[in-house]
C-alpha cells in the first residue's frame, strides 16, 4: 500500500524538527518517543495538527490542498532565565522560517508564513513558550 499524503506530511514536518540543533542541555521530544522530564529539564515538544482541506478542482480529480499547523513548545523550567527560553524559541522560529519547502513523492509541503511565538504559559514546573508554524500541502499538478 502506498504512503498516504497525511503520512508524508507528518513525517516531513517531524524530520524538519529533528534537523533543528538545540542548544546544549535542551532536548527535542517528538511524538511517540518516551521522555520523562524533571522539574529542571529544558525541552521542546512537537505536535502536528491537520485542519480542513481546501478543494480547488471542480472535477474532484486532484487532491485538495491540505493545511494545518505544527505546534512546538519550548518548555523552560521555572527559576531559569526565561529570556534564554525565548532565545531557543527564536532559534526554532528561524529554523522553521517562511519559504521552507519539503518535497516528498507527489507532495510538496510549504511554510509560507513565519512561525509565531505565542504568549508565555506558566505551569507548575515549567514555562511554556509555544511556537506555531502553519503549513500547506499542495498536490502534484498533472502535466
Number of strands: 8
Per DSSP, the total helix count is 2
From the alpha carbons, calculate the radius of gyration and give it in angstroms. Answer: 17 Å
- CATH topology: the name is STM4215-like
CATH class categorisation? Alpha Beta
The global form is elongated
Helix content: 10-25%
β-strand percent reads 35-45%
Protein architecture, described:
With 143 residues, the protein is an alpha+beta fold. It has a single domain, classed as STM4215-like, CATH 3.30.2000. It contains 2 helices and 8 strands, in the order H-E-E-E-H-E-E-E-E-E. Strands 1, 2, 3, 4, 5, 6, 7 and 8 form an 8-stranded mixed β-sheet that branches. The longest helix has 15 residues. The mean pLDDT is 92.
Put the structure in a nutshell.
The protein is α+β, with helices and mostly antiparallel strands.
Task: Summarize the SSE layout with pairings.
Blueprint: H1 5-19, E1 26-29, E2 42-50, E3 66-77, H2 82-95, E4 100-104, E5 107-111, E6 116-117, E7 121-122, E8 126-139
Parallel strand pairs: 1-2
Antiparallel strand pairs: 2-3, 3-8, 4-5, 5-8, 6-8, 7-8
Notable traits:
143 residues; alpha+beta; STM4215-like; 2 helices; 20% helix
Amino acid at each position: 500500500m502506498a504512503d498516504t499524503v497525511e503520512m508524508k506530511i507528518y513525517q516531513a514536518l517531524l524530520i524538519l524538527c529533528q534537523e533543528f540543533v538545540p542548544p546544549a542541555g535542551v532536548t527535542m521530544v517528538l511524538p511517540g518517543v518516551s521522555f520523562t522530564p524533571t522539574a529542571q529539564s529544558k525541552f521542546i515538544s512537537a505536535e502536528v495538527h491537520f485542519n480542513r482541506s481546501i478543494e480547488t478542482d471542480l472535477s474532484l480529480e486532484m487532491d485538495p490542498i491540505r493545511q494545518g499547523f505544527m505546534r512546538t513548545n519550548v518548555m523552560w523550567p521555572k527559576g531559569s532565565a526565561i529570556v534564554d527560553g525565548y532565545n531557543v524559541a527564536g532559534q526554532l522560529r528561524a529554523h522553521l522560517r517562511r519559504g521552507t519547502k519539503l518535497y516528498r513523492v507527489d507532495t510538496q509541503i510549504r511554510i509560507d508564513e513565519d512561525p509565531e511565538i505565542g504568549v508565555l504559559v506558566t505551569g507548575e514546573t515549567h514555562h511554556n513558550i509555544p511556537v506555531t508554524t502553519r503549513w500547506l500541502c499542495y498536490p502534484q499538478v498533472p502535466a
